[in-house]
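seq/struct pair 1
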Amino acid sequence: MKPFVVSFKGREIDFKGRRIVRRYRDIMGIFQAVDPTLESENPVVYEVFEAPIPEAEGELMFLVTILYPGDVKGEYFMTKGHYHVVEGTAEVYLGLQGKGLILCQTKEGDFEAVEMTPSSVVYIPPYWAHRTVNVSDEPLVFFAVYPAHAGHDYETIEREGFKKRVFKTETGYVLR
């Protein structure tokens, strides 16, 4: 592989890698309630644009995620969330646009909610699951970097969920 450059402006992204689109019906099971209107409309909840990096030890994967604003009966739009298959691997997020929370938890039950805003850098240590939640009325856009061989364990989160969820209030949000 040779060095390369990718560029993006706002939501004009062309990483020449994989684009993952998660629509409401793809991930509706992660929300506490079901919204028949959203099920019918099936909006895009988030998109991930990955760089063309091999998933090999020694490589660093990087990507941009756009998590759109919205909610399911008061629960904010969020990503699926995952642990890394290679548990001893960390991840770094750089907020580019919008406002959100990174929900983090360990299998032992530790939990943290970390705010992400433009220009903030969030470090997610090894052994912590993480999920991103958009708590604003604009797209939450962030850049992420992690060891390319880390892998994603979505199944544990599908089975066990996160300890807390994020809901809209008149003044912002609340964790329940």
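seq/struct pair 2
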Amino acid sequence: MELYRTLAAFPEVFDVLLALRKSGFATAILSNGSPAMLEAAVAGAGLGGLFDAVLSADAVGAFKTHPKVYQYALDQLGVAASAVSFQSSNGWDAYAASDFGMRVVWCNRCGQQRERLPGSPDHEIRTLAELPALLLRS
């Protein structure tokens, strides 16, 4: 678990976050990781200052895919589920957020099989570099 604190971001992530913020999008992380882990991971990946919020499921005492976690994010960000574009590389998380009512982009880098879970991502991409153009035309 200590390695999680120092993981490098995928090469396109910094530029994608910068482009999204310049286009007026708010950016946030919603994770099952603890606040300390998230703080270290963001700093270790060189992404400090690129998020409007870094939210941990710890705050509600449950883990994703529990609906309380997704609702916590909406409450903290002050938006409706339909106003969120939720990105995840985890199929289970993408499907759960979709089932909760969020618009979802699944970053399926490895071409995994689609899940047989409630919900369904609105879009599937292979790299986050595809995200800004997708969101700007939506």
